[in-house]
Amino acid sequence: MTESGxxxxxxxxxxxxxxxxxxxxPLSGIDLSVPQRQSPLAVLFLVLRFVRSIGIVQIVVGAxxxxxxxxxxxxxxxxxMFVASILLVISGLGWWRYTFAVTDGELxxxxxxxxxxxxxxxxxxxxxxxxxxxxxxxxxxxxxxSADSAGTxxxxxxxxxxxxxxxxxxxxxxxxRRAHAATTNEPEHIVHExxxxxxEAGADRVVLRRTPRELVKxxxxxFPLSGLAVLAPLFAFSGQLLDRIPDEGFLDDDVLPxxxxxxxxxxxxxxxxxxxxxxSMILNIIRVFLVHWxxxxxxxxxxxxxxxxxxxxxxxxxxxxxxxxxxVSQTALTRLVGIRSVSLIGIRSTSVEQGAVGGGGTIAVPxxxxxxxxxxxRLGLDGARGVPVLDRAVSPLEVFRQTRNxxxxxxxxxxxxxxxxxxxxxxxxxxxxxxRWLVVRRQTRLxxxxxxVDAIANQTEFFTQVKDEALLRKLNSVTIRQSxxxxxxxxxTLSIHLAGAGITIGMIPIDEAxxxxxxxxxVAETDRRAFM
Length: 532
Fold this sequence. Notes:
Blueprint: E1 36-37, H1 42-54, H2 56-69, H3 73-96, E2 99-103, E3 106-111, E4 117-122, E5 126-133, H4 135-140, E6 143-149, E7 157-162, H5 164-185, E8 205-209, H6 212-220, H7 232-235, H8 238-244, H9 261-292, E9 296-300, E10 303-308, E11 313-318, E12 325-330, H10 332-337, E13 340-345, H11 352-356, E14 363-368, H12 370-380, H13 397-416, H14 432-446, E15 448-451, E16 455-461, E17 465-471, E18 477-481, H15 484-488, E19 491-497, E20 502-509, H16 510-526
Antiparallel strand pairs: 1-2, 2-3, 3-4, 5-6, 5-11, 6-7, 8-9, 9-10, 10-11, 12-13, 12-17, 13-14, 15-16, 16-17, 18-19, 19-20
Helix pairs in contact: 1-3, 6-9, 13-14
């Protein structure tokens, strides 16, 4: 204390910058620090987006209603031109007021027609920058860009139509920023045992590439009727299409001989089912070729990149540190030919199911061999020092618990419907109890899980085998729950919560669950590597 009685003031200390922003190097002469604007043709895509938001069926129905009430074709044409002019003006203003730039380590977007909005996203928070080139984009030589921010359920913003060099420059800038932040946060003593040889800047390594033969194998091993999904848009107009088919004289004796339906059902039904199956497989092969043509997964200095598509080309990039969970699935059909599907699920996916089909920085790759599964797993579990051995099972009491609940529901339904018109047929609900018992018994008997030094794995199986693996250091929280049934028997349910994914294992001993919880929290608290 000084003579005047005042406390001495400590010297001012200037904190060091957390993550100095690396300079954004121009790519192909493109300087992203200068505000960029979309191609003028983006006005067309903005109009199409508005039309899709309304719905094609609703537009057709509305047009039919207006046509039936319109006094003349001239008035209808004037009305259509008036509406189209309004859409073009609004879309043109939206295009003019939409700019984006990369400044001071942030992606800054300005948009808005009536009120101006400014959006600033730190580049190290951008989960992924995806590039997609649909058929119309290919015609005009443009691409669509979607940027996803970590922790959000929807894209932060979408650029409808820009030149590919601009989109690739934005993708590279975001990837370089993420890689720089991860390197800054990573302790020097950490050794990546799960990753292969480091990839130098500018040198990309192709992890896998799908051939047309492999695509055919993928299509043939999917659900036999999955190809019919291509015809789904036609179902909305099925009534109108059937009305166009003439029904008079189609089966006259003069045209076709009389057919004895009763004698022909034995061979007509199997042939019809076979024809539908073959038709569906052909459609599915076409669908797989359109979606996965030239599917290539490349490892870059900043993460993984997946490119695929025939008519519409898409490019999805994901940072390795931000991948949360590795899912490997194998159906009964894919098991016959020895292939599996791998999904490296990213942060943004709001559910594991959503992530498994792609989106949010998720890399979904079908038709992988054992070597490719191992390579993708090593990349997804970047830094894992141990492989979880699936040597632990859940309690067989799980069969009794689930069957008991199903039996109570079936008994209530049978008793409640006994006095209904179906009468004694309500007892058929009781047949669901043994079926439920067989299903749960098989699922419980095949359920396996395991934990290693820094990773946890869970595998379920019925008709499809699904294995999930995650690094313990990436967890957000761990919970242990006990229902009344579990508490009486010393069991519990363990849940590992990640960013956008998770692993839940039920009906395991409470002591085992607590040991895994304590070990997982220790790994998460002592490992300082960034993953968000």
